[in-house]
Sequence to fold (119 residues):
Amino acid sequence: MKRLALAVLVLSVAGRLASPADAPVTVKGYVLDSACAFTKALDKPISRECAIACGKAGSPLVILAEDGTLYWPIADTTPSSGQNSKLLPFAGQKVTASGKVFDRGGSKAMVIEKIAAQK
Fold:
């Protein structure tokens, strides 16, 4: 009985740490600098040039969804790698991105499978 209870507890905790959605999730929002998203509480980028400059300087670019949720682009490879090169062409623009979403401790991360500028 103790083993069963322990197994249930372990599976419950493991499920809360990082659980990808079963199907790809689609997100619409702006690509902007993560620091500006937090320190300036922006609803959209100040400008395309600003977002590009911050991304090239090494600040992680994020997707700020229409509902205000921030999605941190991540790689699902080991070793992992930054995703700014994938996002720089879209910096400061509104995009539609889809991929696996992970949720942990109130933060959301996305392994981007597709990304395109919105018209």
Remarks:
- Residues 20-117 form a domain with the OB fold (Dihydrolipoamide Acetyltransferase, E2P) fold (CATH 2.40.50).
- Confidence is low (pLDDT under 50) at residues 3-18.
- The first helix runs from residue 2 to 17.
- Strands lie at 25-33, 61-65, 70-73, 94-104, 107-117.
